[in-house]
Amino acid sequence: MVIVSQGAASNMSVITRGQALSGTELSREIKNQLKKSVDELKQTFPQYQPKLAIVQVGGREDSNVYIRMKIQAAAAVGAIAEHIKLPKDTTQEELLKKLNGLNNDPNVHGIIVQMPLDSVNEIDSHLITDSVAPSKDVDGLHTINEGRLAIGDLKGFLPCTPVGVLELIKKSGVEIAGADVVVLGRSKIVGTPAAELLKWHHATVTVCHSKTKNLKQKCQQADILVVAIGRAEFVKKDWVKPGAVVIDCGINSIADPTKQSGQRLVGDVAYEEVKEVASHITPVPGGVGPMTVAMLIRNTLSSAETAVKNVTGLWKLKSLPLNLRTPVPSDIEIARSQIPKDITVLAGEVGLLSHEVSQYGSKKAKISLSVLDRLKDNSNGKYVVVTAVTPTPFGEGKSTTMLGLVQALSTKLKKNAFSTMRQPSQGPTFGIKGGAAGGGYSQVIPMEDMNLHLTGDIHAITAANNLLAAQLDTRIFHEATQSDQALYDRLVPKIKGLRKFSNIQLRRLQKLGIQKTDPESLTADEKKRFARLDIDPNHVIWTRVLDINDRYLREVTVGESPTEKGLTRKTGFAISVASEIMAVLALANDMTDFKERLSRMVVAFDRKGDPVTADDLGMTGAMLVLLKDAIEPTLMQTLEGSPVLVHAGPFANIAHGSNSIIADKIALKLVGSDGIVVTEAGFASDIGMEKFFNIKCRTSGDVPNAVVLVLTVRALKMHGGGPAVTPGAPLAPEYVQENLALLKAGLPNAIKHINNAIKFGIPVVVAINHHTNDTDAEIKLLIDSLRDAGAFDVVLSKHWALGSGGAENLAKAVVKATEQRSKFEFLYDLSLPLKTKIEIIAKDMYGAGHVKYSELADEKLKKYEEQGFGKLPICMAKTQLSLTGNPAIKGAPTGFTLDVKDVSAAVGAGFIIPLTGEITKIPGLPTRPAIYDIDFNIETGEIEGLF
Fold first, then answer.
1. Which residues are annotated as catalytic?
2. Is the pLDDT of residue 310 over 80?
């Protein structure tokens, strides 16, 4: 230390000389702080495990030294550093593929590529650094991160060495703001970003390089001198302003005979002489180097912290404002008046990562199932199911209510909230009911996409279903027209003189108990058993499907061509959403479960009465290939920018009528423990809700916290004895004028549905879906009566006309209901006989007194019990228009007899289907379908007449 006199003793000041700025000590302090931070976060988020991936091509020893330092530093703070060592002959394409995998790995938070690349192949290093995802570029070398720094956006990842330089300068105590700084060197990694960083900390920065004139004189003016020139001991004592802070970023090897290695490391500054004039100076080694490593680890931890908080905290969801109009315009006019967010923006707001989102244009996207693996340790949100009273043919607005509720939860109550819903069939869209995108100011947008092809899932199901049907009929034909040996030879052909069983054929051998893998080793009897499924053409239960209403396909004859050699049979078509594959898609928990369910679908029975499955026909893999994208749900949004997952669309009166388990599981993870997922069950509580609980919840293991029961004044007046409600015809006066007597007479139907939900131990919030003709007196009657009947709350909701503003009270009531302690229990035990389970549903859910079985139904139920299907849940096929099996009977009758006319088994989906009444699997078009109103305007490029 040198003491310099400046006059009187009272004016004496002390100027420090040669104070070493130890990066080793400062980095140790920083790492101790980082370790403490990691330990604290692990207390809140046990799954928090920061991970750095270090990619090295080749094996340069100098690189190995740095990599070991990084691994040790990561371990010191409780992080993981994985050293990924690639051989010297790695190609650019192979390196890019490796980086892409790391970019998409949610468990990796930081990626660095060790430079220089030690490869025998030509590799563009700039392309490589730009191939690391900016969100994982903890080296701060990506062009995007460099650009952010250049414009003063310091929120991204900053280059490690320049930040280390900054921290060392701060440690010196010298004021950066207003200081004259000279940066000697303009490299991408150190010089240029260091200059930018110091500039945005309000220093006056001069960047010098090999072409700079009067270089020495410029350096002499610096209060702070940062040297990164790459030349050993280049800066001498007379280059440095007395009292300046000198940061030496260089590291060079020079000859030193006093060392055992004959070499020693020095910086770009002549340390021994410069320290005599500099106030503070960094040594080499032990200066900037350890700080670079510390900053790398700090960036990695920052990335990991962001990742864990992004999936557990409150979303930064930007709502879309509504332009409310009175009277409310048509649905399509409202939908087109709103400008949706880009789907990638919405995905980011709800915590999805870029590689988890596959865009279909800019307004919809498929979501990868890998989200579930990434968020497996996250707590689920609350789960709410929307159902309804027995509906009129118009429906009572479940979808509209659900969307209005989610808009209110998101925008008014600031909750993480998702709606999950089925994809509409094109049958109703071009028929009479219309779409299923909601309505008024509570819709999914773009509604044209929602109601038409969307992302092609229904088409994929149609293709898979019909391929299976084609293979089934073809197999019947070939077995009928070929000998055992010829059939076997064609099923297991010789290719280049060698026979080989495929994987699916090996599964069939195992099923038959044949423990052989060599096709030549089978006996004649084994070949026959393997080759012949011996399908009974009179007991084929698999039908073809089509996603339109076409009554003339309900019953058809196939095999009429002379080429089919008289092998005709009667069959029929179902609408695509009635395919068992649709129900399988909706009930699968993951891809493995999906494949297993497809494989065990029963498509026919053989002549012995034993089931024949899709796997027996060799179809499992082929179907899965057609359906591999269909298993991913589609992300869309409401009019107010709240997220919606659209997936699957099983029929509600043939299948279980709910959207997919996968969509619900993804949404429940994304909303987090304080969020809410609102889903929908098809039709009323007697059909949709009952199946939702007893089938879907059994399969998923997810149990709702509350039920929202949607009703309208119109529906209860109908159940009170009002005139018939007919689509396409004006409503009778009773429905548009106040009629308290009629409404009161219809209350038992609503009360029955409330009691149905209470039987499962779930609180029920009744949502009165407001229509403009409803009167205050009618609403008061409903609220008072239904609260007395056991509803947790009864709320008038005006979401159709007002969007989220009209559903805020409903949202508040639902939140309170979800806070109640769950007392959920299933309606029946699976171990009970099939008939007992059917009768429990009929009596408890419908109010029936007895169940009567046809001879055919009785025979099939016994057969299914014998075949091991008796422990499956029940999926009743019943009219949605009545609690009974007769659609003409309204209200809430009791003691009636329910007729079960037939029974079928959906073994892949995992339920038994008793058929009551007349259930049509493919609807027909009405006299005047919606087709007449639908057109495409060539000039504007818009669809017209779609709602």
1. 70, 114, 139
2. no
